[in-house]
Amino acid sequence: MLTRAEIEKAAADLVRAEAERRQIGLLSLRHPMMTMDDSYAVQAAFVGAKLAKGRQVIGWKIGLTSKAMQSALNIDTPDSGVLLDDMAFDSGATIPADRFIQPRIEAELAFVMKAPLAGPDTSPSEVLAATDYVIPALEILDTRIVRIDPATKAARTIVDTISDNAANAGIVTGGRKVKPGEVDLRWCGAIVSRNDEVEETGLGAGVLNDPAMGIAWLANRLALYGQRIEAGQIVLSGSFIRPVEARHGDRITADFGPLGQVNCLFA
Fold this sequence. Notes:
Layout: H1 4-20, H2 27-30, H3 36-51, E1 57-63, H4 67-72, E2 79-84, E3 88-90, E4 93-95, E5 104-113, H5 124-130, E6 131-141, H6 158-163, E7 168-173, E8 189-194, E9 197-203, H7 211-223, E10 234-236, E11 244-245, E12 251-255, E13 261-266
Parallel strand pairs: 1-10, 3-7, 4-13
Antiparallel strand pairs: 1-2, 5-6, 5-10, 5-11, 6-7, 8-9, 8-12, 12-13
Helix pairs in contact: 1-3, 5-7
């Protein structure tokens, strides 16, 4: 277990990295015995520093829900991070050039809750009953921690990703809101283009076979820490595409078919 001082130091380094747009080294190399509980403690301290400066929690993100992404990090479980009010963008927004370090985009379905949702035994059907509506979304990923250590060539691990607020940096929403049960979420998909060239496609079933399963997983994980998903919060259920690099001048568009489009421009 990391000491309190080590947790606070890691969180402070992440705060500085974000402010200065300069990545820090791998925490997994700094603390080789670091556990997932340690990394969630670092994430909580990282987010807590933002809350102390006036930010507000608006929801949650779930990551690493696909087999491909779990295999890349040699894990068999998703992870989660916290959405804050300054991360929210509307479709059509221009993302400032100095906002992120190495932004990437993922396509997801976002659940907006009408009732609280608490584990430990939450089921997908309970998720749908607590959901007000589902809306298309793009998640903006960013990495305050290097992806590859330049000296050892070691790659980020799950503890680095979780500590880094699950690489969460922003959310862009748009398109058509749908009520739970109005569509089969497993068959909801998107064609994601960068500057009108298709980069990725995917279906909701890529998220644990059912996007609602991701929300249930989160509710059950939060119960371990005495937390829950609150009414009014938005929850990103997990990406069903591989991340798309977002460079300066790129316009990213996700076509969700009958659910409409979501797009943003990176200045």
